[in-house]
Amino acid sequence: ASSMDVLSPEARRSGSVNTIEVLPDGRLKGHDTDGAGFLQSLRDDGQWSHSGDGLWLYGAGGAACAVAQTLQDATNLAPHFMVRRPDPVRRLLSKQFEKLQVSSLGAHEKTAPGLHIHCTPIGLGATQGTSAWIEATRTIADWLPADMGSCVAVDLIYTPEETPFMELARQ
Q1: For the chain (length 171 residues), average pLDDT per consecutive 10?
Q2: Taking the model in full, what pTM does it have?
Q3: 133, 12, 111, 125: which is closest to 62 by C-alpha?
Q4: Where are the alpha helices (DSSP H) in the chain?
Q5: Among 62, 110, 129, 157, which one has the highest count of C-beta atoms within 10 angstroms of its own C-beta?
Q6: What is the C-alpha separation between 7 and 100, in angstroms, rounded?
Q7: In Å, what is the CA distance from 162 to each residue of 4, 124, 141, 165?
């Protein structure tokens, strides 16, 4: 984002850029389309209704913040970030989010209904059955609530198509 001459409102709020537009005068305008694209995919899929359920995000990077901000704006749900180091993340994100919860990974209740979004690189590019997959599965298993029955799970990673997070969430 700091390399851009101009930022869209979404990029300014999230602090990240994933699309660059060259303006007629040659300046570079940065956009963050992660949140809008994610919300559209939820609407297209029709699997999730935001009827007061929780909004759980595993990780707090640029994509996670963009998705959380868009969902908070659209649903008025407070994002609950699950991270390794809650205190610095809470300090950083409290400027961006009016309503905010930050907890250590794996610190849920036994059930945590709502939308669970994996936003970390754990499992990225892992092949099922390999040591990388097994390690990712062990790590993620410690994060998820014991009962995912009333949850909708989404992984921002799209390679591989079936990620360790999604495999565990389906069980």
Answers
A1: 93 88 98 89 79 83 88 88 93 88 79 83 84 85 79 84 84 78
A2: 0.83
A3: 12
A4: 9-14, 34-45, 62-75, 86-93, 131-143, 164-170
A5: 157
A6: 24
A7: 35, 10, 15, 8
